[in-house]
Amino acid sequence: MSCNIEISGLTKRFGQNTVLNNIDLCLKPGERVAIIGPSGTGKSTLLRCLNFLDAPDEGRITLGDLKVDAARASKADILALRRRTGFVFQNYALFANKSARQNIMEGLTTVRGWPAAKATDRANQILTRIGLADRGDSFPSALSGGQQQRVGIGRAMALDADLMLFDEPTSALDPEWVGEVLDLIRAIADGRQTMLIVTHEMQFAREIADRVVFMEGGRIVEQGPPDQIFGNARDERTRAFLRRVG
Amino acid sequence: MNALDIAYMWDLVPVIAGYIPLTLFMALVSMVLALILSAMLAIVRVLKLPVIDRGVAIFISFFRGTPLLVQLFLFYYGLPQLFSFMTNINGVTAAIIGLTLHFSAYMAESIRGAILGVDRSQWEAAASIGMTQGQLLRRIILPQAARTAAPTLMNYFIDMIKGTSLAFTLGVTEMMGAAQKEAAGSFLYLEAFLVVALFYWGIVEILSVGQRRMEQYLGKAVAR
Ligand SMILES: Nc1ncnc2c1ncn2[C@@H]1O[C@H](COP(=O)(O)OP(=O)(O)O)[C@@H](O)[C@H]1O
Ligand SMILES: [Mg+2]
């Protein structure tokens, strides 16, 4: 199957510092791609550029029929791209002034213009899916880290995005909550939802991903099926990284 | 020294009380207008909108840098000289305009501070689901900033109530104006101004109780 999500020549600089250097990546529908690599390598920046939280300097992003030229992206392009990509933040970033249910509904009512009743139904389904059916009225400050991150995932799920972006979704969590969040991501990774997951949980990456991408210094060094990357990496930099973290 | 004429003071109570509605009316209308205006000014400053930002900075600087009384005189006596349609401006309207502009300059700065205090991640999360700048400000950022700014804004409301007393210099008979008139007739200045002072004090005390309640409520509601 061919890619329906294509990133080509994506480049991002912060001042003199080229953080993303000509990134090409292609995702097939439903594909689960894990991105690994040392910190400071541009993994978060890559996801943020795909959502235009950081504006890329060059390159093209294609999501099905939506084609965005980074250098010439209009406001409408950016909104369209954001509405079709869900982002799960490392620090959850739930709306502090909204309940769990409202966090999930916000994208449906405010952004998509759904009537409240329809959005509430959908939010309740998602709350059940993320195992928080009884916590819909709780505010983020009353939820554990694991629960907050599940709501964060629920908020992104509500968008019915073409692509879900996870930026180290478990690395801010106390160890006791990591398992439940990984379990939820496993449950969503059903082969229909296309996902790009930055993670330092190597075991998780190996088990969930169809493909693993190793990044270093703002470039993609090597990519391939998990068994190949973890068992038989071609590039010495990949092997060195895996020795360090493994 | 004569003792206070307590009987006279009692007689004044209903007279002055009759002007409480006008005082509160001016303060409330000015407050509502100032809230709207100051939120807009604060947003212009936070987003650093080109050109207008400069203008807003000058506006804020001017209205914080000059006395309220001078501003009121400018509006009431000065502007009609420039704009003939303003010749018929009445004192209440001029006072409301003056109080609104003066206090919105101060309130804009507190709201701006409160907006900047909202965590960056809240902006990003709202943007990430595709909200426009207007939507994310209205639905996510301003409600959170309002909680932070509320106690300070309440202080400005109290200042505003006291500020309405200056309307008497524009010929408005509000609480202060009424006391002034009574005193001019009876020559019992101390009694008249004492009664009006006690009225202001009472109103402010009642509001302060409300303010404390509000702070307790806000403190409990969203502890982050
Ligand atoms: N807003 C920014 N301004 C300047 N430099 C940044 C900014 N965000 C990230 N960087 C730099 O970009 C590089 C890549 O960062 P990041 O994408 O967060 O790496 P990773 O997620 O792989 O750890 C780092 O050197 C970081 O310092
Ligand atoms: Mg990162």
TrEMBL record, chain A:
Coiled-coil blocks: none
Protein family per UniProt: Belongs to the ABC transporter superfamily.
UniProtKB keywords: ATP-binding, Nucleotide-binding, Transport
Domain called ABC transporter: residue spans: 5-242
GO MF, one annotated term: ATP binding
Keyword Nucleotide-binding: yes
Origin organism lineage: Bacteria, Pseudomonadati, Pseudomonadota, Alphaproteobacteria, Rhodobacterales
PROSITE patterns (UniProt xref): ABC_TRANSPORTER_1, ABC_TRANSPORTER_2
Listed Pfam families: ABC_tran
Protein name (record): Amino acid ABC transporter ATP-binding protein
UniProtKB/TrEMBL annotation, chain B:
Gene3D superfamilies per the UniProt record, alphabetical: MetI-like
Membrane topology reported for the UniProt record: Multi-pass membrane protein
Localization terms from the record: Cell inner membrane; Cell membrane
Keywords for the protein's UniProt record, in alphabetical order: Amino-acid transport, Cell membrane, Membrane, Transmembrane, Transmembrane helix, Transport
Domain ABC transmembrane type-1 residue range list: 20-208
Family (UniProt): Belongs to the binding-protein-dependent transport system permease family. HisMQ subfamily.
UniProt protein name: Amino acid ABC transporter permease
Organism: Paracoccus onchidii
